[in-house]
Design goal:
about 60% strand, mainly beta
Length: about 270
């Protein structure tokens, strides 16, 4: 209980400090609005110096059925804060306010539930080419995750990695996005760390105020006890109302492609630039 309280206070302190720092920065002419949401990949665009952005996962629900069990995993309040630090660098903080995992053993007729807050992740995104996300855009995004989450929800150990987001225009309307990722993840038995690999790749286009996308996502968790590969096909949509050019509402559906991946995941969220 004490650790949970300390973790919550630490998260609140970081969120307030991040917001204050954003308001104190000098502002420049705005780049195109470029949220991280939706989808599992990361865009290469970097926030303008001094601009602050909040992105909120309203609900993220994943459903798995198979092997005589059903698992419903629902996260609420997945918050990401972004701040432009230099013309080519931004800082990020992300945290999930509440996650609930309900597992039902259909054969035994038993149900178990765990819930709590998620881990706290800090990251920086460094643009190597075209920080506004226009043209061929490339960035590096190292991150580190602190084990602030509840037992069974968080990773339980410090971990980190690096993502290399990039986007490539294909035509006047279509673009290709890739997000290769390399991680150091905690072993299942808590004895050490192992490598993890992920790749999100997809195409997208804008249709008026809507941004539509389709992507494939693959994740390889090379745990010494059991190597697990997950994969999904994802459809995403974002809507930026004409009257609210710094706001995006989004929805996503992720369809699992193997037994190690949830059968279906549905996500709703919103992003707001200040």
């Amino acid at each position: 209980m004490i650790m949970s309280l300390r973790s919550s206070l630490a998260v609140a302190t970081l969120v307030v400090a991040f917001a204050i720092a954003g308001s104190a920065q000098a502002r420049s002419e705005p780049r195109d609005f470029c949220p991280d949401r939706p989808g599992k990949g990361s865009p290469p665009c970097v926030m303008d110096v001094g601009r602050f952005q909040a992105e909120l996962g309203l609900v993220d629900s994943a459903f798995s059925r198979g092997g005589g069990a059903s698992v419903d995993d629902t996260a609420l309040g997945g918050l990401e804060l972004r701040l432009g630090l230099t013309p080519v660098l931004e800082g990020q903080l992300s945290w999930t306010a509440h996650e609930r995992i309900r597992t039902k053993d259909r054969a035994a007729g038993t149900t178990s539930t765990i819930s709590g807050t998620g881990d706290l992740t800090g990251a920086v995104r460094w643009s190597l080419r075209n920080p506004g996300g226009d043209g061929v855009s490339i960035a590096l995004q190292p991150f580190v995750t602190a084990p602030t989450g509840a037992d069974g929800i968080g990773g339980g150990m410090w971990q980190g990695g690096v993502i290399a987001p990039m986007s490539i225009p294909l035509t006047a309307d279509w673009s290709l996005a890739l997000s290769p990722e390399l991680d150091a993840r905690p072993d299942a038995d808590g004895s050490g760390r192992h490598a993890g690999f992920a790749l999100a790749g997809g195409v997208g286009r804008s249709v008026g105020p809507f941004a539509l996308g389709a992507e494939l996502w693959v994740d390889v968790d090379d745990d010494p006890a059991d190597r697990v590969t997950s994969a999904s096909f994802d459809l995403t949509a974002g809507w930026t109302p004409k009257a609210l050019p710094d706001v995006q509402f989004d929805a996503s559906a992720y369809v699992g492609l193997n037994r190690a991946t949830p059968d279906l995941e549905l996500v709703l969220g919103v992003a707001r630039r200040f």
